[in-house]
Amino acid sequence: MTGRGRSVAVVGAGIAGLCSANILSEFGFDVHVYDRTPDVGGVWSVTRRYPGVTTQNNKGTYAFSDFPMPDEYPEWPTGEQVQRYLDDYVEHFGLRRLLRLGTEVVSAEQDPESERWTVTSRSLDSDETAVEEYDYLVVANGIFCDPFIPPYEGKEEYEGAGGRLCAASDFHDLADAAGRDVLVVGYGKSSCDVAEALSEVAASTTVVAREVTWKMPRKLANVLNYKYILLTRLSEGLFEHIEQRGFGRFLTGRGKFVRNGLLGSIEKIARRQLRFDRTGLVPEGSFERIVRHAVSLATEGFYEKVEAGTISVRRGRSIAVLREKDGRPVAELDDGSVLPADVIVCATGFVQRVPFLSAAVQERLLDDDGNFLLYRQILPNDVANLYFVGYGSSLFSPLSAEAAALWTVNHLLGGEIPPVEKRREFVRTRLNWMIERTEGKQARGTNIIPFSLRHVDEVLDEIGLNVGPGTRFLQWLLPARPSSYRHAAQELKRRHSVADKKAASNRHASTHMPIPWDETDRR
């Protein structure tokens, strides 16, 4: 442990921040959680939910290990339901007292001698500032922190004509699109979700997509839930890892014909089921490119509406300039065509930022291209008492965040890690590989997809808390269940002789049912 005290500031009250706070407080750390939104949830906050947003994962895999989603939730919960689930998590584990919501972290400055952090925060309600000192800082503001809106030429003229330009996360009310001509920029899950939802009320809905990418149906051939395809170790084994091992080595080596056959079959079914040929939306390349950047689940009803003409897709196009024409706001595309555009919703990605850290600290966090240099996606090599949780884009976000929080606690309690030179070499090697396999879409060094479970393995193996071989074997065939990892925190407490801090009353206060013991979790 690099510091002397036990006080921790956590920036962000989304999935990563909440589980960090829960695990840190379990181990006796004095925690405060800051978030500028008025509620918990991060990307699921009421301030950031766009119409039509649902989880990409099913509810069984998008949950904390010790707190399942309610049985009454649908297979793919809505954004509102996920936020309610996270608020229930706060209540269940008694975290409300740790939260400082509606409070923005203005700066976090580190004293070069003591290596403690001075956090300056500002209440968004009262505009009052506060200054507090902490021994450690956990950054959990997320890799989907600030939405990116392209700097379109002519924005002022466009808005002067009454046009509205906004990010998907800033568009909250369907009524704002009623009877209007809407453009949605992008082709990821968010853009398709928004377009499908707004098409119900808009006069016209057009998706402007620079690139058309592969999508996975929720149920392949309307029968097989996609979780049996993409949320297993088998799916990860189909793609070549920098340290390939076991059956995965066979699948990407001598058994590549098996791998190619599986991926080819999925491609054919998805292509037919999602009407790619009929709509002219067959993506470039093969289906395996779906994992190049981020796996995208097809939005229910989107392709049916494209085929019916309710939604138009301008493939391979981008907005060149915004302007006014005949008193109305319009968008001119790069092919010269002009589209009426009362509303333009940009689902064009996010900017990963830590604006509260000084430029000097950020220089030690990033390489020359702005990529985060984090060991295990958690630990900077050159800044003491600073940790990142949730800085790995994963198909198992809550589980990955829990693993990172456990790793952080273990390190704070004196757990050993490789020397700094070996960590630097590891980070650089992994980042170079990430850049190559994602074709430059590495999300500033945070894109671990499709190797979500492999990453969890590496994090938990290093601290000796991974599930046993029986569970890992089942995960080759069945979707990984977060509940399989629920004993890790208790094992870490036993190892470090930490008393259980959770009150029994909290254990039984929730309406959530306890998870029965699974024999395959025995180690």
UniProtKB/TrEMBL annotation:
Single GO MF annotation: flavin adenine dinucleotide binding
Annotated SUPFAM superfamilies: FAD/NAD(P)-binding domain
Keywords: FAD, Flavoprotein, NADP, Oxidoreductase
Top-rank lineage group of the source organism: Bacteria
Region feature Disordered, mapped onto this chain: 492-523
Basic and acidic residues bias (residue ranges): 492-503
Pfam families, A to Z: FMO-like
InterPro entries (alphabetical): FAD/NAD-bd_sf (IPR036188), Flavin_mOase (IPR000960), Flavin_mOase-like (IPR020946), FMO-like (IPR050346)
Keyword Oxidoreductase: yes
Spans traversing the lipid bilayer: none
Family: Belongs to the FAD-binding monooxygenase family. Belongs to the FMO family.
Protein's UniProt name: NAD(P)/FAD-dependent oxidoreductase
The organism of origin for this protein: Rhodococcus rhodochrous
Species classification: Bacteria, Bacillati, Actinomycetota, Actinomycetes, Mycobacteriales
